[in-house]
Each structure stands twice: as structure tokens, then as C-alpha cells.
Amino acid sequence: MTSPKQAVSSHSSAASTSSATLQDGMVVQLDRGFPLVRLENGEEVRCKHATALVKGEKLRAVIGDHVRIDQAPDADMAQIAEILPRQRSLVRRDPAERSQAQTLAANFDTIIVAHPLAELNLNRLERELVLACETGAAVVVALTKADLASEDEVRKAMETVRNIAGNTASVEVLSETDAASIEALRAHVPAGSIAVLIGRSGVGKSSLVNMLAGAEVQATTPVRETDGKGRHTTVNRAIVPIKGGGFVVDMPGVRGMGLWEAEEGLATAFSDITDLAQECKFRDCKHLDEPGCAVRAAVEAGSLHPARLESYLRLQKENADQQLKTAEAERIRARKGHPRRRS
């Protein structure tokens, strides 16, 4: 089975569509309606997917996809006839079809992981770093709403996040009242590049997009004075130009970020543990109770926090369980007469 994170290379509509009639473009907005595609001449066109494209694999274009569209004069709407190879993809386990993957975005250069500084969720941050590192893109952790925290809280949060991120991600502290902090984040998205902004609802992503864009391009809701939290406002995915830089994709708040074939992401996001594992006595050490485990020795010596190892083992097990479930689902679908194999 081809991984969703691999290049899309053979997904096109019926061969009867002449390539001479197709136009190249990029998906720049996804909402509850049809994808919005920006053509090379700047024209933006709402498109549906060609039936031959979605039949069988049920492939859909995602934000950032480079596509080829057919604007036949006798058609009621332009249609996406081909999805071109993807440079990279952000993929999670589909929350509805847990044995399948869901691609959230494609063809980006950087992932910005947003977390409110005063209420860090370290388990979620570690999970998001695994998913982000799996893409191969540059990763930045943006600690938002620093203006609502004390200097001591900022210092402690920075220290905690840098210990988790290590060399895998840059860390920036953002404040609406500090223009220099916004410029520091803009520097991670230079002209010609695209960043994907992820984070749970209420972390201030829409406000952050507006600050990066230098204009009110995304609706926001007032922050409650009692807890500094906002409400989820982004309902679509759109590519927004950054003032003096590249582009950013504001993703709607995503609750579930299940891992999908994330071995490389785990190894990168937890490089401190995987480096230690090279010194274990046994190559297949599970870091549980095996003799000569260098990882457990580091925990006992105090150089590795036990919660860090617990997170790694939990995510590693989740990833392995997902792979087993996927393999079993593939075997079931491959059986003769299975409903999903019927034409």
C-alpha cells in the first residue's frame, strides 16, 4: 500500500481528457463547499473533483495541492482532473476511519505548532512534534499569548519547551504587544515558502495569522478575562499571504492528532531517547526491564525525565498498534467479495 506521505504520482481522471485542455493551479482554500483553486494567471476557480479521480481510492485534493483542472465550456463547473506529486504531506490517522490516513495539507516548507504559553499541554506538544517531524519540514513552536504571562512563567515555559524540542524545532515566544516577536516568527517563513499553522482550538491561531499578515484576514473572538481563552473561529483552511514573507495556512483547531506511520517522526522528535537506545545491550530493547538498558539507566541517573520516556513508549505503542490495525484492515478489504472491492 502506498503511504499517503509519499508523492502522489498516478492520480488523474479519465485518459479521454486531453492534457492540452488542462490548466495548472494550487488549492488555496478548503471549506464545506468546493475547493478553491488559484490558476497560474491568478484567476481563482471553484472546482469539483473528477469522478474518475475519487473513485476507488476516494482521493481528494487538500490545501496546498498542485492540481490540473479541466474547464470544459459545456461543463457546469470546473473539475480537478489530476493531483500532482506532493513534495510532503501532513498526515494523521483518520478519526472516522481509524485504519486509514487523512492528509491535512501538502507542499509546505514549515510547520508552526502553536501553544498558549500559560497552559502548555506537554503530551499534545510531543505528539504534534512527532507528526510535524514526520513530514520532513522545518518545525517551529510558537508560544502564544505571552502578554498574559509573567516573566517567570515565560522563562519556565521556554526552558520546558526547549528541553522537549531539543534540536528538532525552533522556539519563539509571541506577544501581540511585541512587534519584534512577530518579526522573529515571520523570519521562519521567507518569501516563496509556505508554513502550516497547527494547534488546538482557542490557542490564538487566527490572531497569530492576522499578526503575521499585518491585517485582519481571519475572524477572531474576544479572549475571556477569566482564563485567557478564546473560542474556535476558523472553519476553513486557507493560504494567507504573510506581510513581507511567504504564506501561512491556518488550520481549524484539530482535537485528534492520531499518529500514522510515524517511525521517523518518533525518532526525530525523541532523538534524545533514540540516541541513548544505541547504547542498549540488546538491539531490540523495549526500554522496559531489560538488562543493560541505557535508556532506563539515564532515567535512574536523573538525566532523562521518566515522563519523557513514558510519552515516547506510549506514542511508540500507538504507532505500532495503528500499523497492525491497518494491515488487518487491508487483509479484510482484499478478501474476494468484500463490499469495498465491489465495482
Description:
29% of the residues lie in helices and 22% in strands. It has 343 residues and is of the alpha/beta class. It has three domains: 11-86, OB fold (Dihydrolipoamide Acetyltransferase, E2P) (Beta Barrel); 90-250, Rossmann fold, CATH 3.40.50; 270-325, Ribonucleotide Reductase Protein R1, domain 1, CATH 1.10.40.50. It has a five-stranded mixed beta barrel. Strands 7-8 form a two-stranded antiparallel sheet. Helix 6 crosses helix 7. The protein starts with 10 loop residues before the first strand and ends in a 9-residue tail after the last helix. Residues 223-233 have low confidence and may be disordered.
Notable features of this structure?
3 domains; alpha/beta; Ribonucleotide Reductase Protein R1, domain 1; OB fold (Dihydrolipoamide Acetyltransferase, E2P); five-stranded mixed barrel; 343 residues; Rossmann fold
End-to-end Cα distance: 20 Å
Report the C-alpha radius of gyration, rounded.
22 Å
* Poorly predicted parts: 223-233
Annotated CATH homologous superfamily of the largest domain: P-loop containing nucleotide triphosphate hydrolases
Assembly type: single chain
CATH fold field value of the largest domain: Rossmann fold
Question: What is the topology?
Answer:
Elements: E1 11-12, E2 22-30, E3 36-39, E4 44-49, H1 51-54, E5 66-70, E6 78-83, E7 89-93, E8 101-106, E9 110-116, H2 122-135, E10 138-144, H3 151-165, E11 170-173, H4 179-186, E12 194-198, H5 205-213, E13 237-241, E14 247-250, H6 263-269, H7 271-277, H8 294-301, H9 306-334
Parallel strand pairs: 4-6, 9-10, 9-12, 10-11, 12-14
Antiparallel strand pairs: 1-6, 2-3, 2-5, 2-13, 3-4, 5-6, 7-8, 13-14
Helix pairs in contact: 2-6, 6-7
